Amino acid sequence: MSGEVGIVLERTAYRPGERVAGQAGWHRDKPPRQASIRLFWRVRGARVDDVKVVDVHDVAQPQAAQDVAFEFTLPDEPYSYRGTLFSIEWGVELLVGDSGEVATFTLGPG
Questions:
Q1: 68-95 exposure pattern, b = at least 16 Cβ within 10 A, e = fewer
Q2: Residue 50: which CATH number?
Q3: 31: which residues sit within 8 A by CB, 6+ positions away?
Q4: Radius of gyration of the chain (CA)
Q5: How far apart are CA 93 and CA 38, in angstroms?
Q6: Which of 24, 26, 35, 41 could share a disulfide with 59, CB 3.0–4.6 Å?
Q7: How do residues 6-39 score in pLDDT, each as one tens digit?
Q8: Is the pTM for the entire model greater than 0.90?
Q9: Structural domain of residue 17, as residue ranges?
Q10: Count of Cβ atoms closer than 10 Å to residue 49 Cβ
Q11: Are 25 and 32 in contact (CB under 8 A)?
Q12: How many Cα atoms occupy the beta-carbon half-sphere of 63 within 13 Å?
């Protein structure tokens, strides 16, 4: 892959029902066939690594170089959690062609 992709969130901690917002962007030699930004949470543990996509924003007619503002409304659960047996982490992922970048954040009661 030639070029760069990046994603930045306005904050790193949110409460249920708030909006997670930020900027995503890329610079490539040619326009990618597809680009999308997705809100997800992941459960990781000794016997599990599962991802649940909550929402997706597909970028219409992506350009070779482009900056995109995004915003997702967060659900009530699950809260972020880090334990000895498993963890739950939230993130926003930018997918541009065969490249990707993730920005993680914490979802909790405050």
A1: bebebebeeeeebeeeeeeebbbbbbbb
A2: 2.60.40.640
A3: 61, 62, 63, 64
A4: 15
A5: 5
A6: 35
A7: 999 999 999 999 999 999 999 999 999 999 999 9
A8: yes
A9: 3-107
A10: 10
A11: no
A12: 6
